[in-house]
Amino acid sequence: MTGTTSTATSNGIDVTQLTQTVEAIQDDSDLANFRFRAHNVWVDGGHSRTRVQRFWGAGAEDTSRAEPFVLEGDEPHVLLGTDQAPNAVEAVLHALASCLAVGMAYNAAARGITIRSLEFDLEGELDLHGFLGLSADTRAGYQHVRVSYRIDSDASRDVIDDLCAHVQRTSPVLDILRNPVDVSITRA
User: Fold this and answer.
1) Which of 7, 47, 55, 126 is a plausible cystine mate for 43, CB 3.0–4.6 Å?
2) What is the spatial distance between Cα 132 and Cα 77, in angstroms, rounded to a whole number?
3) What distance in Å separates the CA atoms of residue 96 and residue 118, rounded to the nearest whole number?
């Protein structure tokens, strides 16, 4: 049939486009370089607002987002905030869950695995002694994060375990949490 195209989708993912993206990056490794940006403005107290819109990726500045995404951050009342939004460490849990979900869905689609449902529960333990500067021996961030997931799929337990292990090796957010990242902070 002339003029028609067939698009294979799995788990809401265009597998044809996913395959083409992987092949394009294999052909031109510069296409794999991305630079994401965020702009944050302090509002009041523990409340701040972050805007995310443009990024550099696939060899060009992406301008496809007509409007920015706006993410609110605040602290709960017990931490002197107004509880208008998740705090930053809760946002980290969201970022991890979101990244793991994307990894599971995309990699499952690439492997021909159908996911009917997928859920994550996350819990992070944090000791305020580090954040408050009360102990030089206590890190300011999470001491431990636990993630559990439930998946309903057409694949066997062994196949899902292998998929999950692969996702853990390739998750950008999990990598950021598990490994030190060079961060520079300068006054503009």
Assistant:
1) 47
2) 16
3) 14
CATH number for the region 86-188 comes to 3.30.300.20
Task: For residue 149, list its beta bridge partners.
Answer: 120
- DSSP characters for 31-64? GG--EE--EEEEEETTEEEEEE--EEETTEEE--
pLDDT in tens, 27-80: 999 999 999 999 999 999 999 999 999 999 999 999 999 999 999 999 999 999
- Percent helix, strand, coil in the chain, to 5, is 35, 30, 35
> pLDDT tens digits, residue range 139-169?
999 999 999 999 999 999 999 999 999 999 9
Residues in the chain: 188
Contacts of 93 (CB under 8 A, 6+ apart): 122, 123, 124, 145
Domain ranges for the chain: 86-188
> What six digits make up the tokens of 49?
């607002």
Q: Are 51 and 39 in contact (CB under 8 A)?
A: yes
